[in-house]
Design goal:
Helix content: 25-40%
Number of domains: 2
Largest sheet: 3 strands, antiparallel
Structural class: mainly alpha
Shape: globular
Radius of gyration: 21 Å
Low-confidence stretches: 360-368
Oligomer: single chain
CATH topology of the largest domain: Cytochrome Bc1 Complex, Chain D, domain 2
Number of strands: 5
Strand order of the largest sheet: 1-2-3
Length: about 375
């Protein structure tokens, strides 16, 4: 219930039945042309397995006419039960999703087309749209993708300025952190390239909790990561390497938000087994939902599953001093570009008449 910082888990028949299985990912730079894979498990990627340019959960039923990967991404939160579609029997959208994923998108497109201000905008801006009835979900997804790409581009961090020749852009501590990042700490073995991500998948051995991303034939409260998409055992508990610009603004960290601070997630990378064993439920900083507390950490009681996960915990990295770890934290902050606050674009109202959250908040709140 509610929006933004006022959101609550609801009450009565409106209360949530389950937590969202994964930590939300940031939107920064996802529209870059060389981004080819999205979501923690890579379930959306460029490809032509289904003849439409994308490998996605919608398979051959993905709508035609999508401009790019980011537009395709915009479609899936709309039909995700625990994101926007709602609980079973609550509305016609979630009912349609359970018939087949593509059955819900025409319903949503019709809702947008029925709002005169939106319809007028699409008719004015798109030559192939002559009337509200011409608006398709791909038009809406393309608009969302274009907005996200234009709004969350971040390439003017102190690190970027340093690379362009401004040798004063980083202080001495940040420089030490950068040298560790690309050197002894070996961070760049995964956080590589222009976007500081190899767009590949790695098992980090993060502590397991929450509802997990269960599958129909596997209802354990666990998250198998990339394996759920590939059915390849080598992908067990592996997740996509996140991009790092503005990472200091997007806590908590990890695919499930296991660590609340940059220092903690860096220490976990350096010594996964020790950090995993030292982790406590309080580290997760979960919003209070009393009726879910009894199952939030139930997976920790599954001895066999814990052994499976422990077998995938990577070896420890280099032994860094506390001062070196703080230098890495400082370098992470040097990847912050706040020159344009997306919250400044929040309108006073929207054509649908839905309430708009205009409470000042951290930029991290823009992560979907």
């Amino acid at each position: 219930m509610g929006v933004g910082t006022h959101r609550t888990p609801g009450t009565g028949s409106d209360k949530i039945k389950k937590r969202v299985p994964r930590n939300s990912q940031a939107l920064f730079n996802l529209g870059a042309r060389d981004i080819h894979t999205l979501f923690h498990d890579g379930r959306l990627a460029l490809g032509d397995e289904y003849g439409n340019g994308f490998n996605s959960p919608a398979e051959e039923w993905l709508p035609q006419g999508l401009d790019n990967l980011l537009a395709a991404q915009a479609l899936f939160p709309l039909v995700a039960q625990f994101e926007m579609a709602g609980n079973l029997a609550e509305n016609d959208v979630i009912g349609a999703v359970h018939d087949r994923i593509d059955a819900a998108w025409p319903i949503l497109a019709a809702r947008v087309a029925d709002i005169p201000a939106y319809a007028e905008h699409f008719i004015r801006e798109k030559s192939h749209i002559d009337s509200p009835g011409d608006i398709r979900i791909s038009d809406i997804a393309n608009a969302l993708g274009a907005f996200m790409n234009a709004t969350w581009q971040r390439i003017d961090t102190p690190f970027d300025l340093y690379l362009r020749g401004d040798k004063t852009a980083l202080n001495n501590t940040e420089l030490r952190g950068m040298r560790l990042f690309y050197g002894e700490a070996n961070c760049a073995s995964c956080h590589s390239g222009m976007w500081l991500s190899d767009q590949s998948f790695h098992a980090l051995g993060l502590p397991s909790f929450g509802p997990g991303r269960t599958r129909r034939h596997n209802l354990l409260a666990r998250d198998l990561g990339r394996l759920a998409e590939t059915d390849d055992i080598k992908d067990a508990y592996a997740f996509r390497t996140p991009m790092l610009r503005n990472v200091a603004l997007t806590a908590p960290y990890g695919h499930n938000g296991a660590w609340a601070t940059l220092e903690d997630i860096i220490r976990h990378h350096l010594d996964p087994l020790t950090m995993r064993e030292a982790w406590t439920p309080e580290d997760a900083k979960l919003p209070l939902v009393p009726w879910l507390q009894s199952v939030d950490f139930i997976i920790q009681q599954d001895r066999i599953e814990m052994a499976r996960q422990a077998a995938r915990v990577p070896a420890a990295g280099p032994a860094l001093s506390d001062a070196e770890i703080q230098s890495l934290v400082a370098f992470m902050h040097a990847l912050t570009d706040e020159r344009d606050d997306p919250l400044s674009l929040v309108p006073a109202s929207v054509p649908s008449g839905l309430p708009v959250d205009r409470v000042p908040q951290q930029l991290s709140a823009v992560s979907p």
